[in-house]
Write a structure and sequence with these properties.
Four copies of one chain form a homotetramer.
Chain A (H helix, E strand, L loop, with lengths): L6 E5 L4 E5 L5 E4 L2 E4 L11 E3 L5 E5 L3 H8 L9 H10 L7 E5 L5 H10 L4 E5 L3 H13 L6 E4 L12 E6 L8 H5 L2 E11 L2 H13 L3 E14 L6 E2 L2 E3 L4 E6 L2
Parallel strand pairs in A: 7-8, 7-10, 8-9, 10-11
Antiparallel strand pairs in A: 1-2, 1-6, 3-4, 5-6, 11-15, 12-13, 12-15
Helix pairs in contact in A: 2-3
Chain lengths: 252, 252, 252, 252
């Protein structure tokens, strides 16, 4: 049963809205206004009418939708095509202890936390207080905040925790911090990076080699979408051509 | 502490082996023989020597490595680039109830089960007994078999369960079963498919439209890898150009 | 020496304009006005000043630039990435006799004519008079109109010429005309097609097989561009993801 | 009529051979032996039988086939997907004067020469005598040797010619020679490069910027092929993922 504070996906014939239900308030669309009180107490899968009589499904947002449409963004997020792959390449599963820096808007953190549920932990190192606060709110929205242990500083500071099973670094000059991170990684732990430029890839590879990391990999993920028309099946005209290079290595 | 029956990743300077530890037995490499009794009782991250004195790390295989190297395959598996993305597109998270058919070698099932841990369930429909048995063994290896409820029949049979939150269909002619699956899906539930040919995509799209599914999407994921050499950074000469088309829709 | 009627490329520090020189007229830019009389009599590579004193190079447009910026378009043109490859796949060289239908805006025709220069011929079949007229003007601009022999009808009509060395078909339902075209192709001649949808590819392949064409090929060309910044080398954020599928076969 | 010395494409049901016809000699296939005297005097498009009665078409090789299968290779060739695009980006057309270094096996030179036919010229600078000799033989095979003016030295030597309309550089460290080449280029002339690594791209971009070249572009061309089966249309499993980065700029 839907209650105040729940995030709902209102899905009409052509439109989708992701909103938080607030008692005695309403939500306006160009198809008319929806009263939240008409939603509270219903079940996911039920419908609600606007004051103009337009029908909307009340759906439970998936984790995917929360990340793309439900979270508040202060930064460019890591896209699902990348965050899903990163999480699997790091091999995240319940019980693992993971280091992440920085947190951005928490889009990757949510996907990683979901894989670590119920008994894994992400130790986040983020120097921007407003990013950290916002990301933690986003994790709450996804009901995965219990997985995260936040720290308000970057990786140039000593890291108090140790014996990490994996690490993911998404900062501008990651090569500056690899030696520090290595000192708290278990042997064989996977470290990952995402950077937009080839120059950054080159710097990271140099430092990983200097520090005897093993199994270096550089990859990129491309997502191509098609017009879903059975009589005229063809790729979309344009696509995202680049989000970033992914780099992985094992602590040797 | 490592004990009999554990899967270990033996990592030398150039070679990697994924083996199950068996008491009083040994394992041969071209760098010499390793006695499993020398491994039992050690911790992950420790090293072991071959009879020729060659050193190997004893590492805990990640979920990613289990899928690619540790599981026994009877079929072409769904690759990590695809299985990670599918799992996120379906929005899988603890508490959800998911339908999957068929199970293949369980590579996708493992990734989905990990996202559903601890309180989700995958109801698997697979008509080949040897596939089902092997896949369940693979899930045990990944310690995720508690998430799976197996059924030894395909989707042409009535489905006893209902109110599924998501479904993934990987069979040769998926369009034959969509109507049956729809009858047990919740409103708004995401259904996904993977097929290799454009002809299959066209048939699936036709049937999804006929049955009033919403938000149809056709996508493909391409993974491009680079030679990890800082002085000569460049893509690999060749790549996998196609595994399959991914199709997603919402039950309308 | 530049004279009236020449197409020139006016290249400033940031802007490029492709214009035809007309006596006693002028051309306005947001950097000021350029008198064409100041250009007539100069040589390519010289500069000209706007009335505000801004300097522009007077360059001879390359064939590539003529196609992308100089020709008048009534239709979506075939992009250089595709037209260059098509021309080479057809194996076009001086002395060959080529069939093309339709002509569109002549962008592909120009590239093919250039490869056929000086002694090849393109027999064009185009039913839209305004397309044909415009394309012939564009070929004149490229000084390649002597290669083209135009016909104002489509391929449903009998083709008077015969013994073609190659053919390229760019119409909506090419499969309707393949049998007619085959009757005028030499043995071993290459036929090519460009179509946007997989459904069209499937229809063409069926007909080519029915008519015993050999060496069927389906290909697509993707062009990915990078930001040309040495300190931050990376792909552009977005790219054209699809122009069309290319199909080639040999007359068997 | 086919005569001694002609290159022919012998095309059977499943096999293709590109051979030079030699009087009184024969050619063996696993489908039987073909006597060249049975080919001399016939026309392209005719057939010939092996001593086992297997039929082969006698086809005239296209320029495309000559490049891929007919020329003798001492080096990795520039692939048609790249050479076709380079030729169009340089804007090559009859009357232009082009600089090329090195020549490799002449695969690109053939495509460029074809676009420059009849009144263009390519001044080739190549320091390896055996490469130059072999490439010139390949150009003869394509009947395009009249377009090429060879020089047996590299670009570190003074270049006697000047006023080039375009240049293409395919050597290991192209940045060493850009200043020398610039001194013989017309204003506005396009210069192009092909290099395999991002490090080389970065060095070239730095030097082009230092020398005030304009309109810098970095691109790559990807060719994806499909299985040409109408009932099961799908991309091939694997593809060439990288040949090289293309760089273009204009002399400013």
């Amino acid at each position: 049963m839907i209650k105040e504070g729940d995030t709902v996906h209102l899905k009409g014939k052509k439109d989708s809205f992701f909103v938080i239900v607030e008692k005695d308030k309403e939500f306006s669309t160009h198809k008319g206004t929806i009263k939240f009180n008409d939603i509270i107490g219903k079940n996911f899968g039920d419908t609600v009418l606007t004051h103009k009589g337009e029908e909307f499904f009340i759906l439970k947002p998936t984790l995917y939708e929360l990340i793309l449409y439900g979270i508040k963004r202060y930064t460019q997020i890591i896209y699902p095509k990348d965050s899903a792959y990163i999480t699997l390449k790091l091999g995240l599963t319940s019980g693992m202890k993971v280091l992440e820096s920085g947190i951005g808007s928490g889009a990757l953190t949510i996907v990683m936390a979901n894989a670590l549920n119920p008994d894994g932990k992400i130790y986040v190192y983020e120097k921007e207080e407003k990013f950290l606060k916002n990301a933690l709110n986003n994790l709450k929205l996804a009901k995965l905040d219990h997985i995260v242990i936040p720290h308000l500083h970057d990786l140039s500071q000593p890291i108090q925790e140790k014996d990490f099973d994996a690490a993911f670094i998404d900062v501008r000059e990651p090569w500056l911090y690899i030696e520090n991170v290595k000192s708290v990684l278990k042997k064989g732990a996977v470290i990952g990076f995402l950077v937009p430029t080839t120059n950054q890839v080159i710097e990271i590879l140099k430092e990983l080699k200097r520090l005897n990391f093993l199994d270096l990999e550089v990859e990129e993920i491309l997502l191509r979408s098609y017009k879903p028309v059975p009589d005229r099946l063809r790729p979309d005209d344009r696509m995202v051509a680049h989000t970033g290079y992914l780099i992985f290595a094992k602590n040797g």
